[in-house]
Amino acid sequence: MARTKEFDPDAALQAALELFWRRGYEATSMSDLVEHLGIGRASIYATFGSKHELYLRALDRYDRAGLPPIVRELSQPGPALPAVRAVVRRYATEAADEQLRRNGCMVTNAAAELAPHDPAAARHVERNWDQLETVLHSALVRAQAQGELPADRNPLTLARMLLVLLQGLRVVGKASADPARVRDAAEQALALLD
């Protein structure tokens, strides 16, 4: 007779996400996961596989939770450029916020820590960036079609510049104690949309 799980796998995955997000992949040991999740090592392996598989599932969960609100915001009918500006400014505000900046962005963290040598993590990062670039590009195409963005601007290259800016805001915000640094960079980049 099979034993019933004595823990909620969804809650355990969320707890693992929070630990990996706060500490990073390498700094989180299986012992840390056992302690933080409150379940045995064998149960972690049986439910999630290896530490690496658990990390990738946590990264996927983070991505699924974080990207849809941005997609909705940038896909709303009406003027598109104010929505793009709002997203960039929100990233800058979050990057400068004392509480929010400590963890940074889990995708950005994965890009810096794992993507250079971990193909599976790199695929997760690229998928996130492709989706964000696509939604930014679509919003900028709409903005141009509605006369909000000058006709001589290239929506794809602007979307790519904004993607790089957003990721850079997360990195600089996590490490810098000067909130003006990220706010000034965001405003300078937004000036390119005029």
Automatic annotation (TrEMBL):
According to its UniProt entry, this protein's organism is Streptomyces doebereineriae
Pfam family example for this protein? TetR_C_13
Keywords, ordered alphabetically: DNA-binding, Transcription, Transcription regulation
Q: Which SUPFAM superfamilies match?
A: Homeodomain-like (SSF46689), Tetracyclin repressor-like, C-terminal domain (SSF48498)
Q: Which InterPro entries match?
A: Homeodomain-like_sf, HTH_TetR, Tet_transcr_reg_TetR-rel_C_sf, TetR_C
Gene3D superfamilies per the UniProt record, alphabetical: Homeodomain-like, Tetracycline Repressor, domain 2
| Residue span, HTH tetR-type domain | 6-66
Q: Which chain regions cross the lipid bilayer?
A: none
Q: Does the keyword Protein biosynthesis apply?
A: no
Would I find Signal among this entry's keywords? no
Task: Give the DNA-binding residues.
Answer: 29-48
List the PANTHER family hit by this protein, alphabetically.
Answer: HTH-TYPE TRANSCRIPTIONAL REGULATOR YJDC, TRANSCRIPTIONAL REGULATORY PROTEIN
Protein name listed in UniProt: TetR/AcrR family transcriptional regulator
